[in-house]
Amino acid sequence: MPVPLIDLTADYRELKAEIDEAIARVIARAAFVGGEEMQLFERELAAFVGVRRAVGLGNCSDALELALRALGVGPSDRVLTVPFTFAATVEAIVRVGAEPVLVDIDERDFTIDVDAAARALDRQKIKAIIAVHLYGHPADLDRLLPLARRHGAALIEDAAQAHGAWCNVQGQRRRVGSVGDAACFSFYPTKNLGAMGDGGALVTDSEEIARRVWLLANHGDAGKYEHVIANGGNSRLDGIQAAVLRVKLRHLDAWNARRRRVAAKYARLLADLPVLLPSERAGAESVYHQYTIRAADRERLRAALAERGIGSGVHYPLALHQQEGFRHLAAAADSFPVAERCAAEVLSLPMSPHLDDAAIEQVSAALHEAGC
Questions:
Q1: 56-71: b or e for each residue (b if 16 or more CB lie within 10 Å)?
Q2: What is the C-alpha to C-alpha distance for residues 236 and 214, in angstroms, rounded to an integer?
Q3: CA 231, CA 219: separation in Å to the nearest integer?
Q4: How far apart (Å, rounded) are the C-alpha atoms in residues 55 and 218?
Q5: d(CA 363, CA 310)
Q6: DSSP state for residue 192 in the 8-state scheme
Q7: In the prediction, which pLDDT does 151 show?
Q8: Where are the alpha helices (DSSP H) in the chain?
Q9: Does an H or E element contain 309, and which?
Q10: All residues at 6 or more sequence positions from 246 whose CB lies less than 8 Å from its CB, including other chains
Q11: What pLDDT, on the 0 to 100 scale, is given for residue 34?
Q12: E strands of 88-208, at which residues?
């Protein structure tokens, strides 16, 4: 049987009655923008993450940009992040007029190399750090948080791929998203917590940051046509998406636990192959948005999987500094060898909380047959 990289209908099949009822509720109330479902989702998401506030937004790209703007980042400022991430991370920095400063990633979990970040912070003034939790793996926030505080830099978590992940920070077990000054989530349909359309949110423990983001996302409107800032815009999560996300949020921990079981089975079945399997740093608990291996002959393996009806993905085939639009970020004094090796080798295997043992074994058999 074919094994897709991800089955976007599986969540709906499992929760059809709950989701249909939630959508019908919004339609009956005609609460398509804002409304009770939106307000309840914001409260429930904040409680889930462990922060005071959440602001529903149009997408995670907006959330990243608004986080920077709310923290006062703008022209002449520098923002530290990584070259191995989706383009939106760096786009947000460019869109506020700031300068992206890139450092390499860690071989073990694809997240920011904290030692490289420390060296960059020692060399120049950095206004903010965007820590990307890639593939569901938490960045090393235990080391990043005191580093950011010591250098007076704001810490933003790009949690677009890490809904529900955990990490140890200063002796406490914390949800991803609860550590930085602000954190940004994506609800793109493929995400662990995915909407039936686009969507995003910013979460924070700061009432002031939440208020600024709300104003920036709602035309600066502090009341009915009371515009208190002139540089606001429009970025809102709609009522139907909020209602669907409320349903799915109740199941997220159970789904993530199932993803971790899938990852554990992959690890057992693929342990004898000459590929690098994903690993978790001590004190971190991934939610395996992707199960991404590294293989020197990736394209051959990908073709072998496709011949057997098995989907795979490459996230991402080029690091950002290798892309035409971002090539200017590859300063002569800097190099990103780990990011470049990962871009050449990463291969994401089918991953879903709905993936059964037979499908996992089919993927494993195909990789073994391919002689990797």
A1: bbbbbbbbbbbbbbbb
A2: 9
A3: 7
A4: 11
A5: 7
A6: S
A7: 98
A8: 10-29, 36-49, 60-70, 88-95, 114-123, 141-150, 207-217, 239-249, 252-270, 298-307, 337-345, 357-369
A9: none
A10: 22, 37, 40, 41, 44
A11: 87
A12: 99-102, 128-132, 154-158, 166-169, 172-175, 182-186, 200-204
Q: Helix or strand or coil: residue 208? A: helix
Sheet holding 154-158, edge to edge: 53-57, 200-204, 182-186, 154-158, 128-132, 78-81, 99-102
The whole-number pLDDT of residue 252 equals 98
Segments in the chain below pLDDT 50? none
Q: For residue range 125-160, list pLDDT tens digits in order.
A: 999 999 999 999 999 999 999 999 999 999 999 999
As beta bridge partners, residue 80 has 101, 129
Q: What pLDDT, on a 0 to 100 scale, did the predictor assign at position 334?
A: 67
Its sign, for the CA torsion 4, 338, 111, 109, is positive
Tokens read off for 294: 């590294």
Closest CA to 186 of 141, 245, 139, 254: 245
pTM here?
Answer: 0.97
**Tell me, what's the pLDDT at 285?**
98
* 354: its two tokens: 């709905």
Encoded tokens for 130:
């965007």
- Chain-centroid distance of CA 304 in Å reads 29
- Domains identified in the chain and CATH numbers: 10-249 (3.40.640.10), 252-369 (3.90.1150.10)
pLDDT score for 225: 85
> Of 84, 325, 281, 88, whose CA–CA distance to 184 is shortest?
88
Summarised one tens digit per residue, pLDDT across range 342-352 is: 999 999 999 99
- Residue 322 gets which letter from DSSP? G
Residues 6+ apart with CB under 8 A from 218: 232, 234, 236
Fill in the amino acid letter for 30.
A
Count of all residues that appear for the chain in the document:
372
For residue 193, the one-letter residue type is: L
Residue pointed to by tokens 């019908």 = 24
pLDDT value for 333: 53
